Amino acid sequence: MATEYADLPQQRRIVTEIPGPVSRALHERRVAAVxxxxxSVLPVYVARAGGGIVEDVDGNRFIDFGSGIAVTNVGNxxxxxxxxxxxxxxxxxxxxxxxxxxxGYVEVCEALNRLTPGDHExxxxxxxxxxxxxxxxxxxARSATGRQxxxxxxxxxxxRTNLTMALTAKNMPYKQGFGPFAGEVYRMPMAxxxxxxxxxxxxxxxxxxxxxxxxxxxxxxxxxxxxxxxPIQGEGGFIEPGRGFLPALAEFCREHGIVFVADEVQTGxxxxxxLFACEHEGVxxxxxxxxxxxxxxxxxxxVTGRAEIxxxxxxxxxGGTYGGNPTACAAALxxxxxxxxxxxxxxxxxIGDALLPRLRALAERYDVIGDVRGRGAMVAxxxxxxxxxxTPNPEALASVVRHCHDNGLVLLTAGTYxxxxxxxxxxxIGDDLLDEGMSLLEEAFARL
Length: 448
Ligand SMILES: *Cc1c(COP(=O)(O)O)cnc(C)c1O
What we know:
The chain has 13 helices and 16 strands. The protein has two domains: 2-64 and 343-446, Aspartate Aminotransferase, domain 1 (Alpha-Beta Complex); 81-341, Aspartate Aminotransferase, domain 2. A hairpin with a 5-residue loop joins strand 15 (412-414) and strand 16. It has helices at 21-33, 67-70, 79-91, 103-115, 130-145, 162-167, 200-219, 245-256, 307-310, 326-341, 344-365, 394-406, 431-446, and strands spanning 46-50, 53-56, 61-64, 122-127, 149-153, 185-188, 224-229, 259-263, 287-290, 301-306, 369-375, 378-386, 389-392, 409-410, 412-414, 420-423. It is globular, with a radius of gyration of 21 Å. The protein is an alpha/beta fold. The strands form three sheets. It has a seven-stranded mixed sheet, sandwiched between helices. Strands 11, 12, 13, 15 and 16 form a five-stranded antiparallel sheet that branches. The longest helix has 22 residues, at 344-365. The structure holds pyridoxal-5'-phosphate (PLP).
């Protein structure tokens, strides 16, 4: 890509064992200081990062296929983000938008209202994290409808706060021991093509019919405030719902006055080869939650949606001390500008076009690869016991991931069964690094 990272060579380089001695020393300090509940996928401590490279404190340079979990879509320390955020930092760091407002907050909301799907009148609110955005979307939907029930799906991930734990499907590690959870949450089967009993082609329509039937018989649509879904499930294993599922759900919501909420926290901001993933099937959500990729790595999140729904909440009913922090807003404006000027939507598609055929070729060669899926720069492989046996294979996954980590590729996993490798490179990664990262992954399968 055009962006230069002059002082951070865009080259993989492994000069110590992984993790190296400086990282291991830091890790000892960490164990004595940091709560054990916080994990790290690859405990090499970071010194610098940019483009497609993460450099650790031992001088090792890793190819980045994780983007800090789909956050640094525009690249780490993106020059535009750094410049605009630095300028803001020097002017003022915080006033609290609820005390003294500032233009950056308004400008980010204007941009989100313009860029999110649908040309209806919209409003936005800015928050700190994805979980906080989801919580606020539920608050807004309940306030606007006067109803309480929230419908979510198998394999869903919506965060780690009390309400979002209830919305999240997977027990370990997200929920175990942390109950009681919030009430009025109802879970439906997910349109999971690879594991749908009657096959992937029937999956979308059949799963939609099931959800409609269950909502109708078990909850009553007149009691449902919101249907909340990730247009491609993230932590659940990059599950792209069967075709027709999302449009059918959106239509059902429209018929029954239910607020259709797309959680685009992981899929948003060019990641999937559309600016937002629900555009793929022309779905226009009533509310959309965003975070991760919004501000090039600074903490920011948002709820954007129909003006009449967003404005149903009484004055003072929404807010927070740090929500829409001025530096995070400046970073978001720079990130959004970068997505446009560097054509990162197109770039995400090109990344998918480069990765998917090679992953499909790997699946032909190795029976442990049960499924290859995803869109744009959000793609995954699901590992199983063997040909025709879909038993999850987390052991094969651990071996592949370890080889990649040891040889300089940051690689993340996902999935309810812990058997999905997910690829999330920064959208500004160079073609050479993309190619080399894929070669490392191919090598890891060859060694299985
Ligand atoms: C990461 C994620 C969240 C939670 O975001 P945080 O910023 O970690 O609170 C919510 N929804 C989805 C789809 C996510 O991927």
